[in-house]
User: What shape does this take?
Amino acid sequence: MRRLTTGILAGVIVLTLIGGGLVYAATSCATTMSWDLEVGVDETTVTENGSVAFRGEAGITGSTGQPRVQGVEVVFIGENGTELTAIPLGDFGVNAQKTRNITVTLPERPVRVELRAEQIDADPDSEWSLLGLEWTGEMYRSITVRSSPEPWYC
Assistant: This one.
C-alpha cells in the first residue's frame, strides 16, 4: 500500500510539473512588447540626368520594450543587386536616437532599401523586425529584412 501511495504521489508531482511548464510556455509566448526599426520614403525625384534623389527617414516604432540597436546602416540596392551606397545611421533605442532623416542622390532608382544592424539588444520576450522597402514598379512597399527568432518554448 505504501508503494502505491508513493507511486501516486510521484505521478501527481510529475503531472503538476508538466502542466505548470505547459502553462508557462503558453503564457510566455504572449508578448506585450513589439517594435520595428523601419525605413520610410517621403519622396523620390528623378533628375534630368537620370539620377534619383531619395528623401526618407528611419526610426523605431511600436511599444519599444527598451531595445538598443547598434551600428545601423541603410543600404540602397540597385537593379542588378549591386550596392549603390550604404549610409551609416548610428545607434537607435535606449539612450540613442529614435529617428534619423535620410537624404541621398543615387545613380539609379534603388529596387530595395535595407536596414542592417551590427547588434540588437532587446528583451527576449519582445517581437521585433527590421523593415526595409522594395520597389514594385509603381511605389515602395514595406518588407521584412530581419526579425526576432521564435522562442524555443513557443
Notes: The first strand starts at residue 34 and ends at 46. Confidence is low (pLDDT under 50) at residues 19-27.
